[in-house]
Structures are given as structure tokens and as C-alpha cells.
Design a protein that fits this description.
The protein is mostly helical. The protein has ten helices and no strands. It has one domain: Orthogonal Bundle (Arc Repressor Mutant, subunit A). Helix 2 packs antiparallel against helix 3 and helix 3 runs antiparallel to helix 7. It is globular, with a radius of gyration of 16 Å.
Length: 155
């Protein structure tokens, strides 16, 4: 998040690190994003519609489907979303999917990493691991070890 919101990202990262569990971490990030949304909000029906789609689909709806549901071009959607939300629909979708994955992990600690990967809308484990490290700041294995989450490995 540092490259998106610079100084604010470091403050949020510190709060996330101090949070006692994933549920609290999700609340911190959601609160931050909602504050950004309110600050940058402009009456923009298209952005509202896309936000709703992203939230309802937990960030799993492909960008092409988002675009087709709005009836406008990708560039116009991106511009409207950026002016209202402050980030692109794709970035918001990725963050939303990551946050939903964290919530899912809290509730389903006994599933295999493969099951979690597909259940949360990632193409494969490499995609999940790469995105997890980008948003969490640490490798998934390290995080799971620290959080005492051990995945069932059917092999």
C-alpha cells in the first residue's frame, strides 16, 4: 500500500501489525478505505455501482465483467472510480479479495492452502502467495506460522 498512499500507508501498517487478530486487521483496513471513500466521494453513480459489485463478489468479479456491467469504457470507468475512491477498480478488487481471504482464514483454519486459494478466488497458489506478500508485507508461510494456522495438507 506504500506506493498508493505513501505516508498514510505506514501508519495503517503499524496499526495492522499491532492488531491482535485478522478480524481487527480487516476492520482497520476497511475503516481506512471508507475514510478515503468519504473524503474523495463525489456523487458518482457508476463508481457506487462498481463498489457494490466488488463488495458483493468479495473482489472476485473480473474487471471485464465489471466493465460490461457498467456500459462504459475501461478508461472512463477507471477515471470515474479514481476520482471518487482514490484507487482503480482493479486495486480495490484486489484489496477487497485479500481482506475477505483474511476473514476466510480466521473461520476455516483446517482447510488446505489449495482449498483456500481457490475458494477465495485466486487462479493458483503462486498468485495467492504473491498477492498475500504484497498486501501483508510478509510471506504467507511466515504469517501462518505466526498466526498458528496450520493447513491440512492432503498429500
Amino acid at each position: 500500500m506504500g506506493h498508493i498512499w505513501e505516508k498514510e500507508a505506514f501508519e495503517i501498517e503499524e496499526k495492522i501489525c499491532l492488531a491482535p487478530n485478522n478480524s481487527e486487521r480487516v476492520k482497520i483496513v476497511e475503516s481506512f478505505l471508507l475514510k478515503k471513500l468519504i473524503k474523495n466521494y463525489k456523487n458518482n453513480f457508476v463508481a457506487d455501482k462498481v463498489l457494490k459489485y466488488i463488495k458483493e463478489t468479495k473482489g472476485r468479479l473480473p474487471l471485464k465483467r465489471l466493465i460490461s456491467n457498467t456500459g462504459i469504457t475501461e478508461r472512463t470507468l477507471e477515471r470515474k472510480f479514481l476520482s471518487s475512491v482514490g484507487i482503480t477498480p482493479k486495486q480495490f478488487s484486489r484489496i477487497t479479495r485479500f481482506l475477505n481471504t483474511c476473514s476466510f482464514l480466521e473461520k476455516h483454519k483446517s482447510q488446505s492452502l489449495t482449498q483456500v486459494t481457490y475458494e477465495c478466488g485466486y487462479y493458483d497458489q503462486a498468485h495467492f502467495i504473491r498477492e498475500f506478500k504484497e498486501f501483508a508485507g510478509i510471506a504467507a508461510k511466515e504469517y501462518f506460522k505466526e498466526a498458528n494456522i496450520s493447513f491440512y495438507d492432503p498429500d
